[in-house]
## 1
Amino acid sequence: MGIIIKPIFTEKQSAITEKFDNRYGFIVVPSANKIEIKNAIEELYGVHVERINTMRYKGKLKKRYTKSGVVEGRTPSYKKAIVTLREGEKIDLFSNI
């Protein structure tokens, strides 16, 4: 199983990538550390990673009112990594589509 689950394509992450064109966001396996994430990014995309910031997000509680009563659930927890590359390097995330 790989360390990188998927890249992040949200409005907030797009704004960060536009402001700093060498920063990208990825959802990673919660047990991965920064060294494993760095090695996975460098191997997968062939770039040099300068810095990694990681964040853990706890799943949110969700409630929905239906005919049969209240349905409760939780969104999944995940770990996010913001990867900063060396100056001048870029990752083409849309090349595999």
## 2
Amino acid sequence: MASNEFICQACGAVFPSRQELDQHNQRDHATAENARWTIAQQAAGGVNCPICGAQFTTADQMNRHARQEHQR
């Protein structure tokens, strides 16, 4: 994997930029409920991990963190 590739944690698809990965996640993996939650959390200034309290800019970042750090 090249250092400039971004991999979808849900399906393994590879993208050349973070923006394209984020668009893919919103288009292909976000549920209507999750999309509303994401927008509300981002408007409130960020998202905290409910398990450890780590702070993230977006719900996608927090979800990726939770999958990688808390589902072992």
## 3
Amino acid sequence: MNFKVLFAEFLGTAILVAAVVGSGIMATNLSDDVLLALLVNGISTVVALGLVILALGPVSGGHFNPAVSIALAIDQKFKVARVAPYIAAQLAGAVSGAVLANLMYGAEAIQVSSTGRVGLGAAIGEVVATAGLVFLILNLIRTKRTELIAVAAPAWIAAGYFFTSSTSFANPAATVGRIFSDSFAGIGPESVPVFVIAQLVGAGLGIVLAKTFANSKKKKS
């Protein structure tokens, strides 16, 4: 594995988190309307996600998400030895993206979010959001439609912003990165373990769903 691959994962995750945090700060600076803030935040996030997958996917596969890297390794679509370096790059990128967003808006570079998101409903929302994302990606890979991931993955996250109770983080690295901005898009440290566990459970469920539907297709043929 060369430096360029890991740098792509670092950069893609940094851009994604900078978009999440930066758009959240911009939205709350412009309006006190929570719905408008969520719309601005969601649109910026999903557009950035699609673009980084298009730009950097050919280099690293465009994971930008430990749940995706782990799921691909379990599903034998990705080398297990690459998982730890990918996750390290993704975590570093996520924290860097939050710091960059803070600096762009003249705030302290490193903050700690005071936004608590702990709750059974939010945890269930993260299970659903991550399960759907992982299932979607694995299904598109299995059916040889990988070119659609750059559109389908952002579309799922966009939907999740408004139908899941957690606003669809669905990414352990981004969740950790968002600790470091006390803004609309931040998450308090006390909420992170619950979110990450829920995301990993969701990833496992997504793998099971992908295998289930793959097996049913084989039986029919």
## 4
Amino acid sequence: MLNDTREFVRDCWYVAGWDYEFGTSKPEQRELLGEAIVLFRKQDGTLAALEDRCVHRHAPLSLGKIEGDHIRCWYHGLRFTSDGKCVEIPGQDTIPPGACVRAYPVVERGGWAWVWMGEAVDANPDLIPPAIGFDNPNWVLKSGQLDYDAPQAYINDNLLDLSHLAYVHANSFGATTGWISRQPKTSVIDRGVRVERWVRDAPPLPPLPSLAKYNSIDMWASYDFLIPGVFLMYTSLHPPGTAEASDHGAPTGKPLFNNFTCQAVTPITHDRSRYFFSWGPGSEFGGEEIAQQMLDVAAMAFGEDKVMIEAQMKIIARDPARQIMPIAADKTVILFQRMMDKMRRPARLSPRAAA
């Protein structure tokens, strides 16, 4: 656990920002995995992503201007295409063949702009996690984000093990010890893990008229946590006794209320991360007002996480070599960390193959 490796996983898609953050009027800089990237929209509305460093004096292209499908450096006027090739150097007819900057594959999907940080030839859009965007008619979602002075791995670990809700989020989410009294079902899925659990005797939140007659409810929570750090969780509320009637498996009846959240953790540097989140009710159970209430509670809860994780970071930094003690709730953390570690290490030849 808390495996703060110094090597990033690169062969995957990272969230660079919300799709609505990138307009046509000016380029935007984002830092991912310690690399400065400039994103801008072309005339057809699609995004381009380039290394944010002009080849001439290394000025940031994000301080430049968008010109059609190109971006012009505003230091000495070099102009680059959306695939990184320099096509104009003011006052100079000959353009050196090496006058280009790195171009990153970028795809907009599920409300986010995703950037592939590995070799461009390996970029496969099918590997983008299936986040739900704001245009999905089944959900009413609101969004937010939060910066951490902590490595991505620490925030991933926090999301992989939700038993902390009973303590860290007792005030914000009204979470009870039901989050830890029974271990969840954990499954390995393609490029991630799936966690399913019932929380019995949970408080009937949010305070809706349809829940007013219940002193407590049964809550079903199922989430996928996918490489490199994407959390997709469905939650539904049911009358007391539903968990037992379902033999603690997935519910079959119509819920009293449901909601969905998409969250992603992107490393800015080794020690800083950006946390993106959206949350809201199913469209048949609530609209913009309920979604905003839920997001306000979530923002409070994620602030509680930030305090704990950044404090944890300072303690670990005093003695990084000191080992922690795993407990039963760490199963999903260990499984996911092994997946990430496998992607960090280059494939090794067997002794026979090497010979």
